Amino acid sequence: MPEFDEELIMRLYKTMYTIRSFEEKVSEQAGMGMIPGFMIHLSVGQEAVAAGVCAALRQDDYIVSTHRGHGHLIAKGASTDRMMAELRGKETGYCRGRGGSMHITSVEVGGLGANGIVGAGLVIAPGAALSARLRGTDQVAVCFFGDGASNQGTFHEGLNLAATWKLPVVFVCENNGYGFSTPQSSHQSIGRISRRAEAYDMPGITVNGDDVLEVYLAASWAVERAREGAGPTLLEAVTRRWLGHYVDDEDDYRSAEEKAEFTLHDPIEQLERRCIEQGLTSTSQLERIRSEVDEEIERACAFAEESEEPSPEDDPGLIFSGGER
Amino acid sequence: MPEFDEELIMRLYKTMYTIRSFEEKVSEQAGMGMIPGFMIHLSVGQEAVAAGVCAALRQDDYIVSTHRGHGHLIAKGASTDRMMAELRGKETGYCRGRGGSMHITSVEVGGLGANGIVGAGLVIAPGAALSARLRGTDQVAVCFFGDGASNQGTFHEGLNLAATWKLPVVFVCENNGYGFSTPQSSHQSIGRISRRAEAYDMPGITVNGDDVLEVYLAASWAVERAREGAGPTLLEAVTRRWLGHYVDDEDDYRSAEEKAEFTLHDPIEQLERRCIEQGLTSTSQLERIRSEVDEEIERACAFAEESEEPSPEDDPGLIFSGGER
Amino acid sequence: MAEDKAPETQFLTYFEAVRQALKEEMELDPSVFLMGEDIRYSIFGPTKDLHLEVGEGRVLDTPITESAFVGAAVGAAITGMRPVVEIMFADFMTVCMDQIINQAAKIRFMTGGQVKVPLVIRAPGGMLSSSAAQHSQCMEALFMHIPGLKICVPAGPVDAKGLLKSAIRDDDPVLFFEHKALYFASDEVPLDPRFTVPLGQASVLREGGDVTIFAISGMVSSAVSAANSLARDGISAEVIDPRTLVPLDTDTLLASVRKTGRLVTVEEGCLTGGVGAEITALVTSEAWSDLKGPVIRVAAKDQPVPFSPVLEAACAPNAQTIAAAARECVGKN
Amino acid sequence: MAEDKAPETQFLTYFEAVRQALKEEMELDPSVFLMGEDIRYSIFGPTKDLHLEVGEGRVLDTPITESAFVGAAVGAAITGMRPVVEIMFADFMTVCMDQIINQAAKIRFMTGGQVKVPLVIRAPGGMLSSSAAQHSQCMEALFMHIPGLKICVPAGPVDAKGLLKSAIRDDDPVLFFEHKALYFASDEVPLDPRFTVPLGQASVLREGGDVTIFAISGMVSSAVSAANSLARDGISAEVIDPRTLVPLDTDTLLASVRKTGRLVTVEEGCLTGGVGAEITALVTSEAWSDLKGPVIRVAAKDQPVPFSPVLEAACAPNAQTIAAAARECVGKN
Ligand SMILES: Cc1ncc(C[n+]2csc(CCOP(=O)(O)OP(=O)(O)O)c2C)c(N)n1
Ligand SMILES: Cc1ncc(C[n+]2csc(CCOP(=O)(O)OP(=O)(O)O)c2C)c(N)n1
Ligand SMILES: [Mg+2]
Ligand SMILES: [Mg+2]
After folding, report:
1. Residue B11 belongs to what domain range?
2. Is residue B162 domain-resident?
3. Interface contact flag, B36 D308, Cβ < 8 Å
4. How far apart are CA C203 and CA C242, in angstroms?
5. pTM reported for the whole predicted model
6. In total, how many domains does chain B have?
7. Distance from CA of D303 to the nearest CA of B (A)
8. Is the ipTM of this complex over 0.95?
9. pLDDT tens digit string along C198-218?
């Protein structure tokens, strides 16, 4: 293990734990019917990917996210209170209650949007990267997507465009082995999705997506490469989705044995163990982070709870910026 | 060079020469304004791909074609008279004048259609192959497409589906180095398109697309492989488009030097030379084939000329099979 | 209506009725097969575990590649099969629009009739509990503009079964819009495998003399409720569900408007360029002199569907807004 | 021709007018840039060699991947740029429909207004000498149904220039439908870089009192011809070109219909679910009591566009069919 500074490790830990704590709360509140809708996709178990990748980014870099996007946005620095309010459909939410979980967006932290269309972000991210180049900045765009999305036409088109134009994009495939109920072996004929980089003469790397430091190192390399103008990278992070595909999912397509193994790979516990073994931190320091986070999430819930519903009056300025009809 | 029987070689020669003769006539007639429209895409120079691939097929196998589809259809066995009539927009044409060059189709010879949408065929061909499997036949589907089309999302989706389901498809990329005015180096970051097979764990082969025997051998291998149930192949044939992208194309994006080299690779002359050098046939026998073909094309022109225009009366049965409104 | 022949029907939900239609047609015709994403799992139920009953090879879970499997369905349809594909949410038809608009709809015409395209695309549409802008759309109006596509909009289990069977037997591409909010609606559904509902026949759900309410899909039951409440105010509304938008049963619609002289159209899709626009244009053209006043269109607001339950509810029509429109139409508001 | 004053107009073709608008806006605003397939070559001319004048980096030839570059344009638009992309033929919008319908149109709304989407999609549509079913379509009616998209349909060089400049300066996604058959039409075009045509203002091309002819895009000149021939028969037709379908200048249209009491709508797209359907619904609703008879819709046949010149001509409306409709409308046929 290379040298990591403690501050970074604590930051990664806190990010992962915030995602976990936020999503467990969301799961609980969804179960209680407090969160509208049923299309709420949680990333419990996959926190290391969001945390490791976003730690390699600057605030002004972009991320383009998926239907399973809470973790990405938290890792990029969004506030959990406005996120929670959005999931509850409140006016104080990031999207003023118009978007909800599947469209959660915080442009101020560089989060260009979750998306309800699988694969949609794969062509939006190259545009943000192109925009950075045209504006003369050295911003980088990260595009998160799943193993299932790696079959969509937009994957191919987005990677081809980014490679041809050497755009500063890092394509991060969160390979959790399933597209909804369909195992990877039934939706594609390859195991390592990073092999697909070959088609664009682009570096393709596979990392253990449950090891936040491994993710961070690979992402840092790819981000710097992009920032220096050397072009895009395909980074595959192999991970596990602990919960159902969405909150109401019966998840009967995965065996009990398979599910029992998930927690063995817990990215948070792994980092914890490592820190303590290597004397990087103490149990009590981690404890302190966790309770801080838990409090933050409680505050977020209270904020969301107390916030107003949107007024049913129309805001035409949300459809056309000039409010035209 | 492996042993080829004379009958096969004469067939390949005749096919290539028929395509050449047909298309030169089309070019001439288009120049004279006899052919409606301007979107007529000729494959002069690329004949070896169509001829070599289709010679590896049975009559009941399928081909799915492109905007540049005359050669494919001729090679698959369509009659030049009904093709010429179609290009002239006549009722005796294969598509009763409704389709024209970009949609020329002859289902009776297994030609499932040219297509005006670049990349469209890449997802249709796997369906024809799936259909064959479900019906319990051992038919194979060939999908022709260009280098430009190899960037479309449908390329990725079609190859992924065919590979995942091990469908009997042969994907034939006619790499003529250009998508319209855009050179390959500006539209993708790779040189050999067959590298893209890696993304689907599929064999990828590049052949000299101006050498009809090389094309034939590779296609035969891929077709047999598909027929035996071993799955799809990506076969890239590197070739040259001698004429403009379409009949009115000024073609000012290719240099005079580049164009001057085209005829050095003439697939027809190459086969001719080889046959004579190896004593497979005589100049006079080839001469005889050529004049037979020239006569056939003249007859096709006369047939098209004499045929009726469609009646402007509607045929509702062409929109809905029951003629519903 | 013969209510006494109970053994001939079964009480089924809408999703079960769809499932029964699929199963019956697959049993009747070996060329019918299914493709779609996670259809063996089946989020809304219609194809759940169907492969266990009809055979693994006939219910194919696809990669998430709508263009690929809809394109493949076109390829299969023109080579002798009868594919029935599912787009998990109708909103995703945007990602395979070329296969629908430029291929399936046109290929018969472009080839001069060399092929038929017996393809069914099932797609659940409409709003359902905060599914938000990309999982709530009614796409049927878009496709009415594309010649070559037939369009079914079943509003209940009986029609869902009967129309789907007709759609599968039809030789042309049919877009079959199920409505997510209807999946658990239930009714007595005929069990005779010969039972079908022909495409192009409207159903008159309620007769009336004062105003015609033309409603589709998820809005039909609200229209009936509206008619019931109107009846209490002495307004007699005739409710017509066209069941298929293409072909459209203009005879039934026009006959009704000729009788009532008033028309309200109701749909859950956006107002502008919606189904109601075409119906209005058609009816004002064909029954001008019978109309006593302008057609009133009831539809969703012209905006993306919002996530917030409050806003979502405000976006869609309901029995109250329909009744209000009908009152306005008859001049009793 | 030496004059001391710089000319205020220049005689330009439609494609040159588009080119001038692009060039002027790129010179005025460094955030404007172009993407599309073979746009430096430019099959119809508007962007031919423009990179030589405005800089290589601002006119980008893309791979043949409409989803990629329209998606990228959305990404660029929400991060500070003003992309203008070209879809070589409007028919190909089917392959990037998701980027248009589910992304560009909705992203402002879905994010609660966090972003604006200043994106222009130029797309040549319409029939032109046997381009057949996949290269001839008028797509504008489809998109009218999607809230969040503005739609321009310039019918001549002056509007092409003026509207395109407004579209580029607009903060919302604009679909800009050029018509292939108009590219070589020419007119005196204002040269002042400040000249624009605002979105949402119809133009009244001819005043008249007997009947209003509402015509768009490639049909406007035919409508004017029709009006001229009607005048010879003593029928005075008012011709209105809305210039933009969204926003729509309903005031001008309704004022005209209130005056004439009669309306004919004319478009080159298919009849069913076309622009005319929406216009009819709108006008019959808003100006019911002023209408003396039903609106008549003139449009292309409900069929894919055929290749054969004979069939193609029979498919589209023309000055004769428009005049005949207007005569029928005023009861003088
Ligand atoms: C175009 C499209 N097709 C299908 C869906 C339905 N859907 C939502 S998420 C999902 C699975 C995505 O799998 P993957 O990309 O691996 O991401 P994961 O859910 O595993 O994070 C599916 C099929 C969709 N939202 N959009
Ligand atoms: C979806 C789509 N985009 C663009 C076009 C316009 N177009 C027709 S052919 C062509 C170039 C195709 O290049 P390639 O696939 O290499 O085939 P080639 O023409 O070289 O045979 C283009 C851009 C189209 N017909 N369809
Ligand atoms: Mg996954
Ligand atoms: Mg090419």
Report:
1. 6-305
2. yes
3. yes
4. 6
5. 0.98
6. 1
7. 7
8. yes
9. 999 999 999 999 999 999 999
